[in-house]
Design brief:
alpha+beta; seven-stranded antiparallel β-sheet; 19 strands; elongated
Length: 586
C-alpha cells in the first residue's frame, strides 16, 4: 500500500480526496436519517392538523350557510303570511313549497327544510318526510331548545321518500315580524352522509379516519356506522379529555397504537377528531432508511467516479510535462506546450411544470356558471302613473258618462279601467284562464270602439280550464300584435280567433288572424330573433309583444313553452304556445 502511494501523486490525491468525501457523506446520511425519522411524525401531525382545519372551514361554511338561510326564511313575507293566516291557503302553500325546493336544490348537504305551523296547517317542506325523529329529540331537550333562539340537535333519523337518512338539524322558532307572536317552527336538516363524504374525501391517511363529535362528545359522523350517535368513549374508552381548542393525544399501545389529533369548530363547539395509526410512521421510517441508504450509496459511487475523473484531468498536464522532460535533448531548446483548462459548473435547470400545471388548473377551474334569468318589464306603465289616481279618474269619467246617458263611453271607460286594473294587479304574475280571457276581451272592446267595424274577436275556450291558473298578460299582446301588424294593414275587416284547449297535463292556446300575413323572409327573421339565447351576436329587435311573451314563457315554463309562429302572406298569421297545468281546477 505504502509503495503504491509513493509511486504516484495521483494515487495519493485519490485516496485523500475519497476519504475526505466518504466520511462526511456517511456522517451526513446518518444525521439526515435521524432527523428525518424524528421529523416524520411531526410532519404527519402538522399535515393532519392542516387537514382538520380545512375540513373545519368547509363545515363552518355549511353551518354559516344554514344559519343565514334560516334567517332568510324567517323573514320571508309569503312564509309569514301563510303561518299567520286565519285559514289554510293552498296557493301560498304551493308557492312556499316551491320556494323551499328552489332554496335547497343546489345544496347537496341539505336533507330537508321543514316549517311547522302553530295553527296546525300542513307543514311546508322541500321533500316528503314519512317519519321524523325530531319531535322526540325536542322533547328530550326541551329545556335547552326553549331557552335558545337557535339550537343544533343531536343526530337522529328521518324517513323520506328517498329512504332512511341520518340528519342533524338547526331548529329555531318562527315569530311574527311585527308583534313577535309565535307562528311555528323551522328546521333545516344536514345530511350525515354528505358530512361523512366531506370527511372521507378530505385526503386523510388511508389507514386512519376522522370523526365529527358534537358538544357532548357524541359521534355525529365518520368512522363505522355503528358508532354514530354514541359517546366517543364507547368505541375508544381510553381516549381521555380534550379540553383545548386543538391538540394531540396518544392512544393505545403496540400494534394498535394511534396518534389522535383534534380541532374544535369555533361556532358550535363541535370537534373534528382524526386517528393516525402509528404503523404509518414505522413504514415511513423504513422508507426513509431505504431512501437514505440508496442516496448515500449512489452518492459514494458518483463521488468516487468524479474524484478519479477530476484527478486524472488535473494531473494530465503534469504527466505530459513529465514525459516531455524525460525526452528532452539538452542540446536543443526546451519545447513549449499549451495547457488548456477550464472549470465546468453544472447549471441546474429548474422545471416549471408545476407552475404550468397550476395555471392550467386555474383555467379549467374558471367556469362560466351564470344563470340568466330576466323578467320582462311588463309593468312600465305602473312606474309612471299612480294607479289609485288613474282608477278614481276613470271612475269619475264612467259616472259622468252614465249621467249624460252616453252608455258607449261609459262601457269603454269601464273596460279600460278593468284592463288597467288587471295589468297592474298588485304585481301578481298568475291569474285564472277566465280572468286572462276577460282581460283580452276588455282590450278588444276598447279597440273595437276606436276602430269600429274593422275587426271581430271570437273566443273558444275549453270550460274545464277556465279556473286553471296561468301566467297573466300572454293573450292580450298577441291579439294586439294581430290587430296592428295584421288586420289594420288590410283594407277590409278581419277576424281574430282565440282558441284554448286542455290536452292532458298541458293547455294549448292559439291566436289566429285573417290579416295580411308575414312574408317568408321576415318570418324566418322573427323566428331567429325569438330563438336567440343571448350568446353570440345580438339579434335585431322584433315585436316587443312577441318578444315579451316568448321570454316570459321560457322563464316560467321552460323551453317547451315558447311561441310557435306560422303565417301565409295574404291569408293571416297563427301564433300558438303550450304550457303545463300548474294546479287542478278548484
Amino acid at each position: 500500500m505504502k509503495r503504491w502511494l509513493s509511486k504516484s501523486l495521483k494515487h495519493k490525491l485519490s485516496l485523500l480526496l475519497l476519504i475526505a468525501i466518504v466520511l462526511p457523506l456517511l456522517a451526513t446520511g446518518a444525521v439526515s436519517y435521524n432527523i428525518a425519522t424524528s421529523a416524520t411524525e411531526e410532519k404527519a401531525k402538522q399535515s393532519g392538523m392542516n387537514t382538520l382545519r380545512q375540513i373545519a372551514d368547509k363545515l363552518e361554511f355549511v353551518i354559516q350557510d344554514v344559519e343565514n338561510m334560516s334567517l332568510f326564511i324567517l323573514g320571508q313575507r309569503e312564509v309569514q303570511a301563510y303561518l299567520d293566516n286565519d285559514r289554510e291557503d293552498v296557493a301560498r302553500y304551493t308557492l312556499n313549497v316551491g320556494f323551499l325546493t328552489n332554496l335547497a336544490f343546489s345544496k347537496k348537504y341539505i336533507s330537508n327544510i321543514t316549517i311547522k305551523s302553530a295553527n296546525g296547517y300542513p307543514p311546508l317542506s322541500n321533500t316528503t318526510v314519512l317519519y321524523s325523529g325530531l319531535p322526540e329529540v325536542l322533547r328530550n331537550h326541551e329545556d335547552i331548545y326553549r331557552s335558545s333562539t337557535k339550537w343544533w340537535t343531536p343526530l337522529y333519523e328521518n324517513r323520506t321518500t328517498e329512504g332512511l337518512k341520518k340528519v342533524v338539524s338547526l331548529v329555531r322558532p318562527i315569530r311574527n315580524v311585527n308583534n313577535f307572536k309565535p307562528l311555528g317552527e323551522l328546521s333545516i336538516s344536514l345530511d350525515e352522509a354528505e358530512i361523512a363524504r366531506y370527511l372521507k374525501e378530505s385526503g386523510w391517511e388511508a389507514k386512519g379516519f376522522v370523526l365529527l363529535l358534537d358538544a357532548n362528545n357524541r359521534i355525529l359522523s365518520g368512522g363505522e356506522s355503528g358508532w354514530l350517535n354514541r359517546p366517543v368513549t364507547e368505541p375508544f374508552p381510553e381516549i381521555g379529555a380534550m379540553p383545548e381548542a386543538s391538540g394531540v393525544l396518544n392512544y393505545g399501545q403496540g400494534d394498535g397504537q394511534k396518534t389522535i389529533l383534534y380541532y374544535t369548530l369555533p361556532s358550535l363547539n363541535w370537534k373534528l377528531v382524526g386517528f393516525i395509526p402509528t404503523e404509518i410512521y414505522t413504514a415511513q421510517n423504513g422508507y426513509v432508511l431505504t431512501v437514505t441508504a440508496v442516496a448515500v450509496g449512489i452518492s459514494l459511487l458518483l463521488a468516487a467516479g468524479l474524484v478519479l475523473y477530476f484527478i486524472q484531468w488535473v494531473t494530465r498536464p503534469l504527466t505530459r510535462m513529465t514525459q516531455t522532460m524525460k525526452d528532452i535533448n539538452p542540446d536543443e531548446p526546451i519545447p513549449t506546450y499549451e495547457v488548456k483548462s477550464s472549470d465546468e459548473v453544472g447549471l441546474l435547470l429548474h422545471s416549471y411544470n408545476k407552475l404550468s400545471d397550476r395555471i392550467q388548473r386555474l383555467k379549467e377551474q374558471v367556469q362560466l356558471n351564470e344563470a340568466k334569468k330576466k323578467e320582462a318589464d311588463i309593468l312600465a306603465l305602473q312606474a309612471q302613473i299612480n294607479p289609485h289616481f288613474l282608477y278614481n279618474t276613470l271612475s269619475s269619467i264612467h259616472w259622468m258618462a252614465l249621467m249624460n246617458q252616453d252608455r258607449q263611453i261609459a262601457e269603454m271607460v269601464g273596460a279600460l279601467s278593468d284592463f288597467l286594473r288587471f295589468s297592474l294587479n298588485k304585481g301578481e304574475e298568475f291569474c285564472p284562464v277566465q280572468q286572462e280571457i276577460a282581460h283580452a276581451q276588455n282590450y278588444a272592446y276598447v279597440q273595437s270602439i276606436r276602430f269600429p267595424g274593422q275587426f271581430e274577436l271570437e273566443v273558444y275556450i275549453d270550460p274545464a280550464m277556465l279556473q286553471t291558473p296561468m301566467l297573466k298578460l300572454l293573450l292580450q299582446p298577441l291579439i294586439e300584435n294581430s290587430l296592428i301588424h295584421g288586420i289594420q294593414k288590410k283594407q277590409q275587416p278581419g277576424f281574430v280567433y282565440v282558441h284554448g284547449e286542455l290536452s292532458g297535463a298541458r293547455m294549448k292556446f292559439v291566436v289566429e288572424d285573417t290579416g295580411v300575413g308575414i312574408e317568408a323572409d321576415k318570418l324566418r327573421e322573427i323566428r331567429r330573433q325569438l330563438a336567440w339565447t343571448g350568446n353570440g351576436a345580438p339579434a335585431a329587435k322584433t315585436s316587443y309583444g312577441l318578444r315579451n311573451v316568448h321570454q316570459r314563457l321560457l322563464l316560467h315554463y321552460g323551453s317547451e313553452a315558447g311561441l310557435a309562429i306560422d303565417s301565409e302572406p295574404g291569408k293571416g298569421t297563427r301564433v300558438s304556445f303550450s304550457i303545463p297545468v300548474l294546479e287542478e281546477p278548484a
